[in-house]
C-alpha cells in the first residue's frame, strides 16, 4: 500500500488505456468513477478522463479501494522480495487467498497512519491493517461494492473503476465466482481496460463475446499485445529465468498446468458497464 506516484511509463499506459476506451465508445460513456485514495490511481483517473474528454465526471475515492497492504514487504521491490524469500513464497503471498505477508511494524516509515489523509478521514490507527491477504482485501471491497456500487448499478449507472491489482482481483473473484484456490492463478495485465456486463436486475454476470481466458469480462486490447504484456509483467516480478509459467490472458488452449486450471473454473457478465483498469 505504498503511495508511490504514477511513473512516466504509468502515465503513458494510462493514456493508452484512455485511447482504448475511446476506440470502444460503447465502453466510454460513463456516469461515475470510483478509485482509491492513492496518488497513482488518482493520477490514472485524471489521464484517462482527459483522453476521453470526460474530466467533468464525478469521482468517488475510498480507502476500500486502496491496494492491499503488503505488510513488512512494503518498501521492497518485487525482485528484492524474490531474492530474499524465494519465488514460490513471493508468489504465495502475492496470489494466494488467505496467506498475508509478515505484518508491518507501526514504527516503520511506511506505516500508512502517519499520512494525514487517513486521520482527516476519521480513521483510527486500528482501522489500518498491518498486513493483508486477498481474503482481507475482499472483505473491504465487498462492503464497498454492496453499499456504494450496487445501488448505482441498480439505478442504471455505468461505472468506471480504476483500482489496483488486488482489489480488482477481489471484485472479479466475487463477480465470477472464482474459488479460493483458483484465485491464485488469476493475473491481470496492468492498465488494460477490462469490461464487464451485468444483468440489469440481478447484477449476475453474463458472458461477453471474446471474453478473457477464464473470466466473463473482455479486455479492450488485442491478443498479441496482451501476451506481450504478460511476458513483460512476469519478467518484472520473477526474472528472466523463472520456472513459474507465464500466464496467458487470451489463449483458449491449455499450454501449462496453470493455464489448464484457469480454463476449468468461472462463469461470466452483462448489463451495465463496469470497466476496471488494473
Task: Based on the model shown, name its key terms.
single chain, 278 residues, alpha/beta, Rossmann fold, six-stranded mixed beta sheet, 39% helix, globular
State the gist of this model:
The protein is α/β, with parallel strands linked by helices and 278 residues long.
Question: Counting H and I runs of at least 4 residues, what is the number of helices?
Answer: 9
CATH class: Alpha Beta
- Please tell me the CATH architecture by its name: 3-Layer(aba) Sandwich
Structural class: alpha/beta
Assembly form of the protein: single chain
Count the E strands. 6
Question: Could you list the spans in which at least 5 consecutive residues all have pLDDT below 50?
Answer: 251-272
Radius of gyration: 18 Å
Question: Any idea of the CATH topology?
Answer: Rossmann fold
- For the record, the count of structural domains works out to 1
Report the biggest beta sheet as strand number plus sense, adding barrel if it closes. Answer: 6 strands, mixed
- Taking the alpha carbons of the first and last residues, their distance comes to 15 Å
Shape: globular
Mean pLDDT level: 84
Q: How much helix is in the residues?
A: 25-40%
Assess the beta-strand content as a share of residues: 5-15%
Strands across the major sheet, in which order? 2-1-3-6-4-5
Order of helices and strands: HEHEHHHHEHEEHHE
Amino acid at each position: 500500500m505504498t503511495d508511490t506516484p504514477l511513473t512516466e511509463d504509468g502515465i503513458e499506459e494510462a493514456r493508452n488505456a484512455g485511447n482504448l476506451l475511446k476506440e470502444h465508445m460503447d465502453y466510454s460513456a460513463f456516469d461515475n468513477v470510483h478509485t482509491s485514495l492513492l496518488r497513482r490511481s488518482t493520477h490514472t483517473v485524471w489521464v484517462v478522463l482527459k483522453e476521453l474528454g470526460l474530466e467533468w465526471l464525478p469521482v468517488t475515492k475510498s480507502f476500500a479501494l486502496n491496494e492491499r497492504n503488503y505488510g513488512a514487504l512494503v518498501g521492497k521491490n518485487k525482485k528484492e522480495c524474490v531474492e530474499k524469500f524465494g519465488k514460490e513464497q513471493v508468489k504465495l503471498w502475492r496470489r494466494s487467498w488467505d496467506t498475508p505477508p509478515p505484518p508491518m511494524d507501526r514504527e516503520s516509515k511506511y506505516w500508512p497512519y502517519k499520512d494525514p489523509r487517513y486521520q482527516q478521514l476519521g480513521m483510527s490507527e486500528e482501522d489500518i491493517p498491518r498486513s493483508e491477504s486477498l481474503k482481507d482485501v475482499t472483505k473491504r471491497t465487498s462492503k464497498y461494492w454492496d453499499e456504494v456500487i450496487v445501488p448505482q448499478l441498480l439505478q442504471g449507472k455505468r461505472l468506471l473503476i480504476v483500482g489496483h491489482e488486488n482489489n480488482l482481483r477481489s471484485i472479479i473473484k466475487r463477480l465470477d465466482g472464482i474459488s479460493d484456490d483458483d484465485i491464485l492463478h488469476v493475473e491481470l495485465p496492468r492498465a488494460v481496460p477490462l469490461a464487464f456486463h451485468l444483468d440489469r436486475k440481478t447484477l449476475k454476470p453474463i458472458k461477453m463475446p471474446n471474453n478473457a481466458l477464464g473470466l466473463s469480462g473482455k479486455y479492450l486490447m488485442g491478443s498479441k499485445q496482451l501476451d506481450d504484456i504478460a511476458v513483460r509483467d512476469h519478467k518484472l516480478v520473477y526474472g528472466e529465468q523463472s520456472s513459474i509459467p507465464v500466464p496467458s490472458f487470451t489463449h483458449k488452449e491449455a499450454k501449462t498446468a496453470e493455464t489448464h486450471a484457469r480454463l476449468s473454473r468461472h462463469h461470466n457478465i452483462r448489463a451495465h458497464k463496469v470497466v476496471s483498469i488494473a
